[in-house]
């Protein structure tokens, strides 16, 4: 059987400026590349932070808004504290001791669960 490799989720976005503010300024992702078929066409871009790679798309047929993904991080509690220190006006993420995770919702209704595996 063929071995599968990396998963790259595609998340729907509707506003490039809000997406950049949330993913770049708040979550510290960086843009790896972006693509448009023409200057007035919807944006499709790849962003990353460490080993986490996401695709963000303004194309209506690529995916549904309101998706949820889980991203493993080294220390979810520390991430939550770093995010709170940024005082981003649209999110004050809490921490779940039960799931050892911090969940944030982007401006488009997509939920990202950052978790640390309990050992």
UniProtKB/TrEMBL annotation:
GO terms for biological process: response to antibiotic. It comes from the Bacteria. Keywords: Antibiotic resistance. The keyword Oxidoreductase does not apply. Residues 3-117 form the VOC domain. InterPro entries: Bleomycin-R, Glyas_Bleomycin-R_OHBP_Dase, VOC_core. Pfam families: Glyoxalase_7. Belongs to the bleomycin resistance protein family. This is Bleomycin resistance protein. It comes from Paenibacillus prosopidis.
